[in-house]
Structure formats: C-alpha cells, structure tokens
Amino acid sequence: MRLNVYIPRPSFSSYLCYPDMFGHYKEFSQHAERRTANYLPFYNLHFIFAGKGYVKEAGRWIELTAGNGFLYGKNLVQEYKADLQEPWDIRWIHFDGVGLEQLFAGKGWGAAWLFSFGKIDRFIQLTDDLYRLGEVFESTNEPKISAVLYEILVELLQNSEDLQGLSLLTYKDKIRRSADYIQANCTRSLKLEEMAAIAGYSSYYFNRMFHQIMDKTPFQYLLECRILHAKALLVSSRMSIKQIALESGFAQSSYFIQIFRRYEQVPPNEYRKMYS
C-alpha cells in the first residue's frame, strides 16, 4: 500500500504549520530514501505503527519499530529504509510553517530526532483526519488542515521522548491520568494520598513526579481547577460569592476571594461584572 497526498500551497502565508505532502506506506519493503543536504526544504516527520525499518545517523543504521518515529529538519541529509522482511507501517508528513524552530526547541535541527511516542490510537485518528481533508481538498479547508497538523505536532511534543528516555512516557501517562481525575473531582475535598493512588505512586513520589511533568504541584493544579470552575459559575449563574466558593471546593469564602484575586488580579465580584 502506498498513499501519497499532495497539497497546493496555502493562500495564507502565516500558518504556524502547513503540509506540503503526506502519506501512508504499508507492506512496501522497497521504501527507501536517500536525500542530500538542501534537497528537501521541509520538515519530514514519520510515525511507525507496525513492522520495522532503519534510519542512518552518524554512519550507522538505527533500528526503529512500532511506537518509534523520526523527524528531520529542513534541508538535512536524510537516509532511511524499511526492513525487507518486516516492512514498517509508516505515516509521514512533509511540512513547513512560521515559528517551528521555537516549537520544536531544536529537535531535528542539526540531525534527525529519533523518538518514541504514546497515544498511538490518537495519532492514527489525527493522521486519518489529515488524509481525509487532503484527498478531497478544498481551499476553504486550509485552516482545518493547518489546525489538524498543529494538533499532531503538539500531541507529539507532549507524548514523546527521545529514544534513550522511553520510561518517562509511562510516568507522563500516569500523571496526566491523575491530573484528569483532579480536574473532574476538583469541587470536593481531595487528599494527596487519593491523587497519588490514581497514578499508583506513593504520595512523596507522586508529588515530585507531578511537579516535574506538570510544572506545578498537585495542590497548585487543584486550585487552578477550582478557580476555573468558579469563573464559570460567576459568569453563568446568580449564585452568591459564598455559594460559589462552596460549590468550587473552598470551605471559606474569604480564602476563595484571596486565591481568586491571586490568580485573576481582581476579586470575584469584579470578575463577574467584567464578564457576565
């Protein structure tokens, strides 16, 4: 199977990202590329979903399998190939855009970035969405195409690790699952032990890993979720400030007002006047 989708150049020149072409190869053992420097003026991203193949870096072939991928920056020397016996099921995108160097923080800039990725079903869904938009291309779909590609790139950066750091993916999945639990239960009293149990970690280890991955402590995240809930009630209801404090998980309205002002720079009643 070989799917190649070519996209006309966009009419708007300032998309953060936009594809030039993309495709899907499966059971194609002859798939091999060898490009010289400055040959391909686009980023070149590949996701492997089954089988295996090889990328040549620093003079040696590196085997990649399902759940691995690679990204080349623009104009790089590129050499990769499918395994002859177990050719990879691979989806790929050539793209460019504005500000991608900052988005990728140097990944793929001087050499291929080899990575592992999680949420495989999500990447299949997103690339399928991209293929559908490309195969029945309409110029009015340019913003959607750019948005789907951007979602792919952000999901990649949030759910991937360099190949030498595979174990951190497991930590990220567990911490994000606990973060979702905190958000869904933010209006009731939550103890650190309960949050940690969702991830399967001790309280101390959970607190440390949560801060490392989310860049905030579990209780800071809990407060943010409660403030978001309170903001929605302030705008959408006529409840008193005291009622909103209680409904948002705060035992005392004075503490709620203090925390709300810290996050929003205005007290709750002023926020309500501004946005209701």
Automatic annotation (TrEMBL):
Gene3D superfamilies per the UniProt record, alphabetical: Homeodomain-like
Keywords of this entry: DNA-binding, Transcription, Transcription regulation
Every HTH araC/xylS-type domain range: 176-274
An annotated Gene Ontology molecular function: DNA-binding transcription factor activity
Domain of life: Bacteria
Any matching Pfam family: AraC_binding
SMART domains the record matches: HTH_ARAC
Protein name: AraC family transcriptional regulator
